[in-house]
Batch of 3 targets.
Target 1
Amino acid sequence: MTEAPAPTAERYAIVAGLERLIGLIRLLTPAGEISLTTASTLARLANIGPHRLSDLAAREGVTQPAMTQLVSRLERNGLAERRGDTDDRRVVMVHITPAGQQLLDQRRKQRAIQLSGLLDELSSDEEHSIAAALPALNKLADLGAPVTGLRPLGPLGER
Protein backbone atom coordinates (compact mmCIF):
# COMPACT_ATOMS: atom_id res chain seq x y z
CA MET A 1 0.00 0.00 0.00
CA THR A 2 1.44 3.34 -1.06
CA GLU A 3 1.34 6.25 1.35
CA ALA A 4 -0.34 9.42 0.20
CA PRO A 5 1.97 12.41 -0.19
CA ALA A 6 2.07 14.85 2.71
CA PRO A 7 -0.32 17.78 2.35
CA THR A 8 1.16 21.10 1.33
CA ALA A 9 1.44 24.03 3.74
CA GLU A 10 -1.45 25.67 1.87
CA ARG A 11 -3.68 22.64 2.44
CA TYR A 12 -2.81 22.59 6.14
CA ALA A 13 -3.79 26.27 6.24
CA ILE A 14 -7.11 25.47 4.53
CA VAL A 15 -7.85 22.75 7.07
CA ALA A 16 -6.94 25.06 9.96
CA GLY A 17 -9.16 27.81 8.56
CA LEU A 18 -12.09 25.45 8.07
CA GLU A 19 -11.65 24.09 11.60
CA ARG A 20 -11.79 27.65 12.98
CA LEU A 21 -14.92 28.31 10.92
CA ILE A 22 -16.57 25.14 12.23
CA GLY A 23 -15.72 26.29 15.74
CA LEU A 24 -17.33 29.66 15.05
CA ILE A 25 -20.51 28.03 13.75
CA ARG A 26 -20.64 25.88 16.89
CA LEU A 27 -20.27 29.01 19.05
CA LEU A 28 -23.11 30.68 17.14
CA THR A 29 -25.39 27.70 17.76
CA PRO A 30 -27.95 28.23 20.52
CA ALA A 31 -26.79 26.40 23.64
CA GLY A 32 -28.80 23.90 25.56
CA GLU A 33 -31.78 23.23 23.34
CA ILE A 34 -30.48 20.09 21.55
CA SER A 35 -27.16 18.26 21.37
CA LEU A 36 -24.91 18.33 18.32
CA THR A 37 -25.75 14.67 17.64
CA THR A 38 -29.45 15.47 17.80
CA ALA A 39 -29.02 18.44 15.45
CA SER A 40 -26.88 16.36 13.09
CA THR A 41 -29.46 13.55 13.06
CA LEU A 42 -32.30 15.96 12.32
CA ALA A 43 -30.24 17.64 9.59
CA ARG A 44 -29.48 14.26 8.02
CA LEU A 45 -33.20 13.40 7.98
CA ALA A 46 -34.01 16.82 6.50
CA ASN A 47 -31.23 16.72 3.90
CA ILE A 48 -31.35 13.11 2.78
CA GLY A 49 -34.74 11.89 3.86
CA PRO A 50 -35.98 8.99 5.97
CA HIS A 51 -33.45 6.48 7.30
CA ARG A 52 -33.46 3.14 9.02
CA LEU A 53 -32.47 3.50 12.64
CA SER A 54 -29.39 1.31 12.12
CA ASP A 55 -28.24 3.49 9.20
CA LEU A 56 -28.69 6.65 11.27
CA ALA A 57 -26.59 5.14 14.06
CA ALA A 58 -23.81 4.18 11.65
CA ARG A 59 -23.77 7.57 9.88
CA GLU A 60 -23.79 9.51 13.14
CA GLY A 61 -21.10 7.31 14.69
CA VAL A 62 -23.16 6.16 17.67
CA THR A 63 -24.36 2.75 18.85
CA GLN A 64 -27.74 1.49 17.79
CA PRO A 65 -29.06 1.58 21.39
CA ALA A 66 -27.92 5.22 21.68
CA MET A 67 -29.66 6.10 18.43
CA THR A 68 -32.79 4.27 19.56
CA GLN A 69 -32.84 6.46 22.69
CA LEU A 70 -32.21 9.59 20.65
CA VAL A 71 -35.00 8.82 18.17
CA SER A 72 -37.36 8.02 21.07
CA ARG A 73 -36.60 11.47 22.56
CA LEU A 74 -37.13 13.09 19.15
CA GLU A 75 -40.50 11.32 18.89
CA ARG A 76 -41.55 12.39 22.39
CA ASN A 77 -40.69 15.99 21.46
CA GLY A 78 -42.55 15.75 18.14
CA LEU A 79 -39.38 16.30 16.08
CA ALA A 80 -39.24 12.92 14.34
CA GLU A 81 -41.46 9.91 13.80
CA ARG A 82 -41.12 6.28 12.82
CA ARG A 83 -43.16 4.96 9.91
CA GLY A 84 -43.26 1.72 8.00
CA ASP A 85 -41.34 1.64 4.73
CA THR A 86 -43.68 1.83 1.72
CA ASP A 87 -41.66 -0.85 -0.09
CA ASP A 88 -41.13 -3.24 2.83
CA ARG A 89 -43.58 -3.02 5.74
CA ARG A 90 -41.14 -4.95 7.96
CA VAL A 91 -38.75 -1.98 7.84
CA VAL A 92 -39.24 1.06 10.05
CA MET A 93 -37.99 4.41 8.74
CA VAL A 94 -37.29 7.51 10.82
CA HIS A 95 -38.72 10.74 9.35
CA ILE A 96 -38.30 14.35 10.40
CA THR A 97 -41.56 16.10 11.28
CA PRO A 98 -42.55 19.66 10.37
CA ALA A 99 -41.68 20.64 13.96
CA GLY A 100 -38.21 19.10 13.54
CA GLN A 101 -37.69 21.03 10.31
CA GLN A 102 -38.91 24.20 12.02
CA LEU A 103 -36.37 23.70 14.82
CA LEU A 104 -33.55 23.31 12.29
CA ASP A 105 -34.73 26.42 10.42
CA GLN A 106 -34.89 28.42 13.66
CA ARG A 107 -31.36 27.35 14.64
CA ARG A 108 -30.07 28.41 11.22
CA LYS A 109 -31.88 31.76 11.50
CA GLN A 110 -30.38 32.41 14.94
CA ARG A 111 -26.87 31.64 13.66
CA ALA A 112 -27.47 33.87 10.63
CA ILE A 113 -28.51 36.77 12.86
CA GLN A 114 -25.41 36.36 15.02
CA LEU A 115 -23.16 35.95 12.00
CA SER A 116 -24.62 39.10 10.44
CA GLY A 117 -23.27 41.10 13.37
CA LEU A 118 -19.81 39.68 12.76
CA LEU A 119 -20.01 40.28 9.01
CA ASP A 120 -20.80 43.93 9.76
CA GLU A 121 -17.29 44.16 11.24
CA LEU A 122 -15.65 43.12 7.95
CA SER A 123 -14.77 45.40 5.10
CA SER A 124 -16.87 45.19 1.96
CA ASP A 125 -13.94 43.50 0.17
CA GLU A 126 -13.60 40.88 2.92
CA GLU A 127 -17.30 40.07 2.80
CA HIS A 128 -17.19 39.80 -1.00
CA SER A 129 -14.17 37.47 -0.72
CA ILE A 130 -16.17 35.15 1.52
CA ALA A 131 -19.13 35.26 -0.87
CA ALA A 132 -16.79 34.55 -3.81
CA ALA A 133 -15.41 31.48 -2.00
CA LEU A 134 -18.87 29.94 -1.45
CA PRO A 135 -19.09 28.13 -4.82
CA ALA A 136 -15.76 26.40 -4.15
CA LEU A 137 -16.77 25.57 -0.55
CA ASN A 138 -20.10 24.16 -1.75
CA LYS A 139 -18.33 22.07 -4.36
CA LEU A 140 -15.91 20.77 -1.71
CA ALA A 141 -18.91 19.80 0.46
CA ASP A 142 -20.61 18.16 -2.54
CA LEU A 143 -17.46 16.13 -3.27
CA GLY A 144 -17.69 14.82 0.29
CA ALA A 145 -21.40 14.04 -0.09
CA PRO A 146 -20.91 10.40 -1.18
CA VAL A 147 -18.72 9.86 1.88
CA THR A 148 -20.98 11.69 4.33
CA GLY A 149 -24.35 10.84 2.76
CA LEU A 150 -25.32 14.49 2.26
CA ARG A 151 -27.16 15.65 -0.83
CA PRO A 152 -25.42 18.39 -2.84
CA LEU A 153 -26.38 21.95 -2.00
CA GLY A 154 -28.67 24.00 -4.20
CA PRO A 155 -27.69 27.48 -5.45
CA LEU A 156 -28.84 29.15 -2.21
CA GLY A 157 -27.08 26.68 0.07
CA GLU A 158 -30.22 24.56 0.48
CA ARG A 159 -30.29 20.77 0.33
Target 2
Amino acid sequence: MVSIASPCVSRPALGLAYAWSGVAAMWAVWICFVVFLAAPRQWLAFWPLPIVDHGGTLSGPFAALVDLGLVMLFGLQHSVMARPWFKERIVGRLPPPFERCTYVHMANLALFALIALWQPIPSEVWNVGSVFAREAMWALFAIGWIILFLGAWSFGIRDLLGIRQMQAWAHGEPQPRRQLKTGWLYRWLRHPMYVGVLLGVWATPRMTLGHALLALGLTGYVLIAMRYEERDLRQRFGRAYMQWRDVRR
Protein backbone atom coordinates (compact mmCIF):
# COMPACT_ATOMS: atom_id res chain seq x y z
CA MET A 1 0.00 0.00 0.00
CA VAL A 2 1.28 3.48 -0.88
CA SER A 3 1.10 6.00 1.92
CA ILE A 4 -0.98 9.10 1.24
CA ALA A 5 1.93 11.10 2.56
CA SER A 6 4.16 9.88 -0.24
CA PRO A 7 5.31 12.96 -2.19
CA CYS A 8 4.96 11.20 -5.55
CA VAL A 9 1.24 10.64 -4.80
CA SER A 10 0.11 13.46 -2.56
CA ARG A 11 1.71 16.49 -4.18
CA PRO A 12 0.24 16.06 -7.70
CA ALA A 13 -3.12 15.04 -6.23
CA LEU A 14 -3.26 18.05 -3.94
CA GLY A 15 -2.14 20.33 -6.75
CA LEU A 16 -4.90 19.09 -9.05
CA ALA A 17 -7.43 19.39 -6.22
CA TYR A 18 -6.28 22.97 -5.66
CA ALA A 19 -6.71 23.79 -9.36
CA TRP A 20 -10.08 22.09 -9.85
CA SER A 21 -11.51 23.53 -6.64
CA GLY A 22 -10.79 26.98 -8.06
CA VAL A 23 -12.69 26.05 -11.23
CA ALA A 24 -15.67 24.74 -9.25
CA ALA A 25 -15.75 27.86 -7.09
CA MET A 26 -15.44 30.05 -10.20
CA TRP A 27 -18.56 28.54 -11.77
CA ALA A 28 -20.53 28.89 -8.53
CA VAL A 29 -19.47 32.51 -7.96
CA TRP A 30 -20.10 33.62 -11.55
CA ILE A 31 -23.56 32.03 -11.53
CA CYS A 32 -24.23 33.95 -8.33
CA PHE A 33 -23.02 37.12 -10.04
CA VAL A 34 -25.39 36.63 -12.98
CA VAL A 35 -28.29 36.12 -10.54
CA PHE A 36 -27.06 39.15 -8.57
CA LEU A 37 -27.30 41.34 -11.68
CA ALA A 38 -30.52 39.86 -13.09
CA ALA A 39 -32.19 40.49 -9.71
CA PRO A 40 -35.09 38.03 -10.13
CA ARG A 41 -37.53 39.19 -7.45
CA GLN A 42 -39.33 35.83 -7.43
CA TRP A 43 -36.12 34.35 -5.99
CA LEU A 44 -35.92 36.74 -3.03
CA ALA A 45 -37.76 34.39 -0.69
CA PHE A 46 -35.08 31.70 -0.86
CA TRP A 47 -31.95 33.27 -2.45
CA PRO A 48 -29.39 33.51 0.40
CA LEU A 49 -27.23 36.32 -1.04
CA PRO A 50 -27.91 39.99 -1.80
CA ILE A 51 -28.90 41.07 -5.28
CA VAL A 52 -27.85 44.32 -6.88
CA ASP A 53 -30.91 46.32 -5.82
CA HIS A 54 -32.19 44.43 -2.77
CA GLY A 55 -30.70 43.65 0.65
CA GLY A 56 -27.89 45.29 2.56
CA THR A 57 -27.93 47.30 5.78
CA LEU A 58 -26.55 50.71 4.73
CA SER A 59 -27.97 53.54 2.69
CA GLY A 60 -26.96 56.82 1.07
CA PRO A 61 -23.30 57.88 1.06
CA PHE A 62 -22.25 55.03 3.34
CA ALA A 63 -23.65 52.44 0.93
CA ALA A 64 -21.93 54.18 -2.00
CA LEU A 65 -18.57 54.19 -0.17
CA VAL A 66 -18.78 50.48 0.62
CA ASP A 67 -19.79 49.66 -2.95
CA LEU A 68 -16.96 51.74 -4.42
CA GLY A 69 -14.52 49.98 -2.09
CA LEU A 70 -15.77 46.57 -3.24
CA VAL A 71 -15.44 47.53 -6.91
CA MET A 72 -11.93 48.85 -6.26
CA LEU A 73 -10.99 45.63 -4.45
CA PHE A 74 -12.25 43.61 -7.42
CA GLY A 75 -10.39 45.78 -9.92
CA LEU A 76 -7.14 45.87 -7.95
CA GLN A 77 -7.11 42.13 -7.46
CA HIS A 78 -7.66 41.46 -11.15
CA SER A 79 -5.25 44.13 -12.38
CA VAL A 80 -2.40 44.00 -9.86
CA MET A 81 -2.16 40.20 -9.68
CA ALA A 82 -2.04 40.06 -13.49
CA ARG A 83 0.90 42.44 -13.81
CA PRO A 84 4.32 40.90 -14.56
CA TRP A 85 6.04 42.75 -11.70
CA PHE A 86 3.56 41.30 -9.17
CA LYS A 87 4.00 37.81 -10.60
CA GLU A 88 7.78 38.09 -10.34
CA ARG A 89 8.00 39.63 -6.85
CA ILE A 90 5.03 38.11 -5.03
CA VAL A 91 3.34 35.25 -6.86
CA GLY A 92 6.70 34.23 -8.35
CA ARG A 93 7.60 32.74 -4.98
CA LEU A 94 5.07 30.00 -5.69
CA PRO A 95 5.89 27.07 -7.98
CA PRO A 96 4.92 28.16 -11.53
CA PRO A 97 1.94 25.77 -11.89
CA PHE A 98 0.34 27.30 -8.78
CA GLU A 99 0.47 30.92 -10.00
CA ARG A 100 -2.62 30.94 -12.22
CA CYS A 101 -4.61 28.72 -9.85
CA THR A 102 -3.91 31.12 -6.99
CA TYR A 103 -5.04 34.03 -9.17
CA VAL A 104 -8.32 32.17 -9.83
CA HIS A 105 -8.89 31.56 -6.11
CA MET A 106 -8.24 35.22 -5.28
CA ALA A 107 -10.52 36.37 -8.10
CA ASN A 108 -13.27 34.14 -6.73
CA LEU A 109 -12.87 35.66 -3.27
CA ALA A 110 -12.92 39.21 -4.62
CA LEU A 111 -16.09 38.66 -6.65
CA PHE A 112 -17.83 36.79 -3.84
CA ALA A 113 -16.99 39.62 -1.44
CA LEU A 114 -18.51 42.11 -3.89
CA ILE A 115 -21.74 40.08 -4.03
CA ALA A 116 -22.01 39.25 -0.33
CA LEU A 117 -21.17 42.72 1.01
CA TRP A 118 -22.94 44.81 -1.64
CA GLN A 119 -25.13 47.65 -0.34
CA PRO A 120 -27.97 48.38 -2.78
CA ILE A 121 -28.93 51.94 -3.70
CA PRO A 122 -32.40 51.31 -5.17
CA SER A 123 -33.17 54.74 -6.68
CA GLU A 124 -34.07 54.20 -10.32
CA VAL A 125 -31.96 55.58 -13.15
CA TRP A 126 -34.17 54.05 -15.83
CA ASN A 127 -36.98 51.52 -16.03
CA VAL A 128 -37.92 50.35 -19.51
CA GLY A 129 -41.67 50.04 -19.92
CA SER A 130 -41.97 48.51 -23.38
CA VAL A 131 -42.21 44.72 -23.33
CA PHE A 132 -40.21 44.48 -26.55
CA ALA A 133 -37.46 46.76 -25.19
CA ARG A 134 -37.30 44.81 -21.93
CA GLU A 135 -36.93 41.53 -23.81
CA ALA A 136 -34.24 43.11 -26.00
CA MET A 137 -32.35 44.20 -22.88
CA TRP A 138 -32.50 40.71 -21.44
CA ALA A 139 -31.33 39.29 -24.76
CA LEU A 140 -28.30 41.62 -24.68
CA PHE A 141 -27.69 40.56 -21.07
CA ALA A 142 -27.63 36.89 -22.09
CA ILE A 143 -25.47 37.62 -25.15
CA GLY A 144 -22.93 39.34 -22.90
CA TRP A 145 -22.42 36.25 -20.76
CA ILE A 146 -22.29 34.01 -23.81
CA ILE A 147 -19.58 36.24 -25.29
CA LEU A 148 -17.67 36.11 -21.99
CA PHE A 149 -17.79 32.31 -21.96
CA LEU A 150 -16.85 31.99 -25.64
CA GLY A 151 -14.05 34.51 -25.11
CA ALA A 152 -12.67 32.37 -22.28
CA TRP A 153 -13.00 29.29 -24.49
CA SER A 154 -11.24 31.10 -27.35
CA PHE A 155 -8.41 32.09 -25.04
CA GLY A 156 -8.05 28.51 -23.84
CA ILE A 157 -10.14 28.00 -20.74
CA ARG A 158 -7.80 25.38 -19.25
CA ASP A 159 -4.90 27.84 -19.53
CA LEU A 160 -7.00 30.71 -18.21
CA LEU A 161 -7.99 28.74 -15.10
CA GLY A 162 -4.59 27.14 -14.50
CA ILE A 163 -5.70 23.57 -15.18
CA ARG A 164 -3.33 22.92 -18.07
CA GLN A 165 -0.35 24.23 -16.09
CA MET A 166 -1.21 22.08 -13.08
CA GLN A 167 -1.79 18.97 -15.18
CA ALA A 168 1.61 19.41 -16.83
CA TRP A 169 3.24 19.70 -13.39
CA ALA A 170 1.35 16.66 -12.05
CA HIS A 171 2.53 14.55 -15.01
CA GLY A 172 6.11 15.78 -14.82
CA GLU A 173 5.89 17.67 -18.13
CA PRO A 174 7.32 21.13 -18.98
CA GLN A 175 5.07 24.10 -18.31
CA PRO A 176 3.14 25.17 -21.45
CA ARG A 177 4.44 28.33 -23.08
CA ARG A 178 2.18 31.35 -23.21
CA GLN A 179 0.95 31.98 -26.75
CA LEU A 180 -0.76 34.89 -28.48
CA LYS A 181 -4.44 33.99 -28.86
CA THR A 182 -5.83 34.90 -32.28
CA GLY A 183 -8.48 32.24 -32.95
CA TRP A 184 -12.25 32.02 -32.53
CA LEU A 185 -13.69 35.29 -31.13
CA TYR A 186 -10.24 36.89 -31.19
CA ARG A 187 -10.54 36.99 -34.97
CA TRP A 188 -13.22 39.69 -34.59
CA LEU A 189 -12.76 41.17 -31.11
CA ARG A 190 -9.59 42.29 -29.40
CA HIS A 191 -11.05 41.83 -25.92
CA PRO A 192 -14.10 39.53 -26.11
CA MET A 193 -14.21 38.81 -22.37
CA TYR A 194 -14.27 42.52 -21.53
CA VAL A 195 -17.02 43.07 -24.13
CA GLY A 196 -19.05 40.30 -22.50
CA VAL A 197 -18.66 41.74 -19.00
CA LEU A 198 -19.68 45.24 -20.13
CA LEU A 199 -22.81 43.94 -21.85
CA GLY A 200 -23.63 41.89 -18.77
CA VAL A 201 -23.42 44.80 -16.34
CA TRP A 202 -25.07 47.47 -18.52
CA ALA A 203 -27.86 45.54 -20.26
CA THR A 204 -30.78 45.67 -17.86
CA PRO A 205 -34.34 46.95 -18.26
CA ARG A 206 -34.27 48.43 -14.74
CA MET A 207 -31.13 50.32 -13.78
CA THR A 208 -30.80 51.46 -10.19
CA LEU A 209 -28.25 53.91 -8.84
CA GLY A 210 -26.34 51.10 -7.15
CA HIS A 211 -26.32 49.01 -10.33
CA ALA A 212 -25.12 52.04 -12.30
CA LEU A 213 -22.33 52.58 -9.76
CA LEU A 214 -21.24 48.98 -10.25
CA ALA A 215 -21.43 49.25 -14.05
CA LEU A 216 -19.44 52.50 -14.10
CA GLY A 217 -16.83 51.06 -11.74
CA LEU A 218 -16.36 47.92 -13.81
CA THR A 219 -16.24 49.99 -17.00
CA GLY A 220 -13.43 52.05 -15.49
CA TYR A 221 -11.63 48.86 -14.50
CA VAL A 222 -11.98 47.46 -18.04
CA LEU A 223 -10.61 50.62 -19.64
CA ILE A 224 -7.59 50.65 -17.33
CA ALA A 225 -7.03 46.89 -17.56
CA MET A 226 -7.11 46.96 -21.38
CA ARG A 227 -4.36 49.57 -21.45
CA TYR A 228 -2.02 47.59 -19.21
CA GLU A 229 -2.88 44.28 -20.82
CA GLU A 230 -2.08 45.59 -24.28
CA ARG A 231 1.22 47.01 -23.02
CA ASP A 232 2.14 43.63 -21.54
CA LEU A 233 1.22 41.89 -24.80
CA ARG A 234 3.38 44.32 -26.81
CA GLN A 235 6.33 43.61 -24.55
CA ARG A 236 5.84 39.84 -24.67
CA PHE A 237 4.89 39.24 -28.32
CA GLY A 238 6.22 42.36 -30.06
CA ARG A 239 5.51 42.62 -33.79
CA ALA A 240 3.20 39.59 -33.87
CA TYR A 241 0.83 41.30 -31.44
CA MET A 242 1.04 44.68 -33.19
CA GLN A 243 0.15 43.15 -36.56
CA TRP A 244 -2.81 41.27 -35.08
CA ARG A 245 -4.01 44.36 -33.18
CA ASP A 246 -3.81 46.63 -36.23
CA VAL A 247 -6.08 44.33 -38.21
CA ARG A 248 -8.78 44.67 -35.50
CA ARG A 249 -8.83 48.44 -35.16
Target 3
Amino acid sequence: MIITLAGRRIDPQDSPVAHFPLEVSPTVRTHIQTLLKEQGATALVSSAACGADLLALEAAGELGLRRRIILPFAPEKFRASSVTDRPGDWGRLFDRIIADVRRSGDLVLMDEEKEGKDAFLSTNRVILDEAQKLASPHNGGAKAAQEGHILAVIVWDGQPRGEFDLTLDFANEARARSIPVAEVLTR
Protein backbone atom coordinates (compact mmCIF):
# COMPACT_ATOMS: atom_id res chain seq x y z
CA MET A 1 0.00 0.00 0.00
CA ILE A 2 1.37 3.36 -1.06
CA ILE A 3 0.18 6.28 1.06
CA THR A 4 0.10 9.76 -0.41
CA LEU A 5 -0.35 12.60 2.02
CA ALA A 6 -1.01 16.32 2.06
CA GLY A 7 -2.34 18.58 4.75
CA ARG A 8 -2.20 21.59 6.92
CA ARG A 9 0.90 23.32 8.11
CA ILE A 10 1.18 24.38 11.73
CA ASP A 11 -0.72 27.62 12.39
CA PRO A 12 1.23 30.90 12.37
CA GLN A 13 2.17 32.37 15.75
CA ASP A 14 -0.86 34.66 16.20
CA SER A 15 -3.38 32.91 13.98
CA PRO A 16 -6.92 34.21 14.60
CA VAL A 17 -8.37 30.78 13.69
CA ALA A 18 -6.96 27.42 14.81
CA HIS A 19 -6.56 25.02 11.89
CA PHE A 20 -3.54 23.09 13.21
CA PRO A 21 -2.21 24.32 16.56
CA LEU A 22 1.35 23.28 17.42
CA GLU A 23 0.26 21.71 20.71
CA VAL A 24 -1.82 19.01 18.96
CA SER A 25 1.02 17.89 16.68
CA PRO A 26 2.03 14.90 18.89
CA THR A 27 -1.54 13.59 18.83
CA VAL A 28 -1.84 14.08 15.07
CA ARG A 29 1.51 12.31 14.57
CA THR A 30 0.23 9.33 16.59
CA HIS A 31 -2.93 9.17 14.46
CA ILE A 32 -0.86 9.27 11.27
CA GLN A 33 1.46 6.52 12.50
CA THR A 34 -1.53 4.36 13.48
CA LEU A 35 -3.06 4.85 10.03
CA LEU A 36 0.22 3.86 8.35
CA LYS A 37 0.33 0.64 10.39
CA GLU A 38 -3.34 -0.22 9.92
CA GLN A 39 -3.13 0.29 6.15
CA GLY A 40 -0.04 -1.89 5.83
CA ALA A 41 1.84 0.97 4.22
CA THR A 42 5.06 0.19 2.39
CA ALA A 43 5.82 3.76 1.26
CA LEU A 44 4.81 7.36 1.86
CA VAL A 45 4.82 10.04 -0.83
CA SER A 46 4.43 13.65 0.27
CA SER A 47 6.04 17.04 0.35
CA ALA A 48 7.94 18.16 3.47
CA ALA A 49 6.29 21.25 4.94
CA CYS A 50 6.02 21.80 8.69
CA GLY A 51 3.00 20.11 10.20
CA ALA A 52 1.28 17.20 8.45
CA ASP A 53 4.06 16.40 5.98
CA LEU A 54 6.98 16.30 8.39
CA LEU A 55 4.99 14.48 11.08
CA ALA A 56 4.06 11.78 8.56
CA LEU A 57 7.59 11.52 7.18
CA GLU A 58 9.00 11.14 10.69
CA ALA A 59 6.44 8.45 11.58
CA ALA A 60 7.08 6.60 8.30
CA GLY A 61 10.82 6.68 8.94
CA GLU A 62 10.35 5.16 12.38
CA LEU A 63 8.30 2.38 10.79
CA GLY A 64 11.02 1.72 8.22
CA LEU A 65 8.85 2.73 5.26
CA ARG A 66 10.18 4.06 2.01
CA ARG A 67 9.72 7.84 1.86
CA ARG A 68 9.56 9.81 -1.38
CA ILE A 69 9.52 13.59 -1.02
CA ILE A 70 8.35 15.97 -3.73
CA LEU A 71 9.53 19.59 -3.51
CA PRO A 72 8.48 22.32 -5.95
CA PHE A 73 11.90 23.98 -5.71
CA ALA A 74 15.31 23.69 -4.00
CA PRO A 75 15.26 22.43 -0.41
CA GLU A 76 16.81 25.65 0.94
CA LYS A 77 14.09 27.80 -0.59
CA PHE A 78 11.36 25.39 0.48
CA ARG A 79 12.75 25.27 4.04
CA ALA A 80 12.54 29.05 4.33
CA SER A 81 9.05 29.39 2.85
CA SER A 82 7.27 26.28 4.16
CA VAL A 83 9.16 24.89 7.16
CA THR A 84 10.85 27.40 9.46
CA ASP A 85 8.30 30.19 9.05
CA ARG A 86 5.99 28.67 11.70
CA PRO A 87 6.33 27.89 15.43
CA GLY A 88 8.19 24.73 16.40
CA ASP A 89 11.59 23.23 15.74
CA TRP A 90 10.78 22.04 12.23
CA GLY A 91 14.07 23.05 10.58
CA ARG A 92 16.16 20.37 12.23
CA LEU A 93 13.60 17.65 11.45
CA PHE A 94 13.38 18.83 7.82
CA ASP A 95 17.18 18.78 7.44
CA ARG A 96 17.47 15.26 8.86
CA ILE A 97 14.65 13.82 6.77
CA ILE A 98 15.81 15.51 3.55
CA ALA A 99 19.34 14.13 4.08
CA ASP A 100 17.99 10.60 4.67
CA VAL A 101 15.68 10.70 1.66
CA ARG A 102 18.34 12.24 -0.59
CA ARG A 103 20.72 9.37 0.30
CA SER A 104 18.08 6.83 -0.71
CA GLY A 105 17.43 8.58 -4.04
CA ASP A 106 13.82 9.45 -3.19
CA LEU A 107 14.03 13.25 -3.19
CA VAL A 108 12.22 14.61 -6.25
CA LEU A 109 12.84 18.25 -7.12
CA MET A 110 10.43 19.57 -9.69
CA ASP A 111 11.99 21.32 -12.67
CA GLU A 112 9.21 23.82 -13.12
CA GLU A 113 9.70 27.54 -12.58
CA LYS A 114 6.29 28.00 -10.97
CA GLU A 115 5.85 30.13 -7.87
CA GLY A 116 3.17 30.52 -5.22
CA LYS A 117 -0.03 28.50 -5.42
CA ASP A 118 0.77 27.17 -8.90
CA ALA A 119 3.94 25.53 -7.60
CA PHE A 120 2.02 23.82 -4.81
CA LEU A 121 -0.86 22.75 -7.07
CA SER A 122 1.71 21.11 -9.37
CA THR A 123 3.31 19.47 -6.35
CA ASN A 124 -0.03 17.87 -5.42
CA ARG A 125 -0.23 16.31 -8.86
CA VAL A 126 3.36 15.08 -8.86
CA ILE A 127 2.84 13.49 -5.42
CA LEU A 128 -0.05 11.48 -6.85
CA ASP A 129 1.89 10.70 -10.07
CA GLU A 130 4.83 9.36 -8.06
CA ALA A 131 2.57 7.23 -5.86
CA GLN A 132 1.00 5.70 -8.96
CA LYS A 133 4.47 4.92 -10.35
CA LEU A 134 5.54 3.28 -7.09
CA ALA A 135 2.32 1.31 -6.75
CA SER A 136 2.37 -0.17 -10.19
CA PRO A 137 5.65 0.09 -12.06
CA HIS A 138 4.50 -2.37 -14.74
CA ASN A 139 0.70 -2.00 -14.94
CA GLY A 140 0.17 1.75 -14.89
CA GLY A 141 -0.91 3.99 -12.03
CA ALA A 142 -4.62 4.10 -12.85
CA LYS A 143 -4.93 0.33 -12.52
CA ALA A 144 -3.06 0.42 -9.18
CA ALA A 145 -5.50 3.03 -7.90
CA GLN A 146 -8.48 0.96 -9.00
CA GLU A 147 -7.03 -2.13 -7.32
CA GLY A 148 -6.70 -0.30 -4.00
CA HIS A 149 -2.91 -0.11 -3.79
CA ILE A 150 -2.89 3.65 -3.14
CA LEU A 151 -4.55 5.69 -0.41
CA ALA A 152 -4.57 9.49 -0.30
CA VAL A 153 -4.55 10.91 3.22
CA ILE A 154 -5.47 14.49 4.02
CA VAL A 155 -4.52 15.95 7.38
CA TRP A 156 -6.71 18.92 8.10
CA ASP A 157 -9.36 20.49 10.30
CA GLY A 158 -12.19 19.22 8.09
CA GLN A 159 -13.04 22.62 6.65
CA PRO A 160 -11.95 24.13 3.32
CA ARG A 161 -10.20 27.48 3.56
CA GLY A 162 -12.22 29.33 1.00
CA GLU A 163 -11.97 29.02 -2.74
CA PHE A 164 -8.28 28.11 -2.81
CA ASP A 165 -7.41 25.23 -0.48
CA LEU A 166 -4.42 23.05 -1.35
CA THR A 167 -5.52 20.20 0.91
CA LEU A 168 -8.97 20.06 -0.65
CA ASP A 169 -7.37 20.27 -4.11
CA PHE A 170 -5.21 17.25 -3.26
CA ALA A 171 -8.26 15.26 -2.13
CA ASN A 172 -10.24 16.23 -5.22
CA GLU A 173 -7.39 15.31 -7.54
CA ALA A 174 -7.00 11.93 -5.80
CA ARG A 175 -10.73 11.21 -6.18
CA ALA A 176 -10.57 12.19 -9.86
CA ARG A 177 -7.92 9.45 -10.23
CA SER A 178 -10.12 6.91 -8.38
CA ILE A 179 -7.80 6.96 -5.37
CA PRO A 180 -9.69 6.64 -2.06
CA VAL A 181 -9.21 9.45 0.46
CA ALA A 182 -8.90 9.16 4.24
CA GLU A 183 -8.79 12.02 6.75
CA VAL A 184 -6.76 12.69 9.88
CA LEU A 185 -8.20 15.63 11.78
CA THR A 186 -6.09 18.34 13.36
CA ARG A 187 -8.75 19.53 15.84
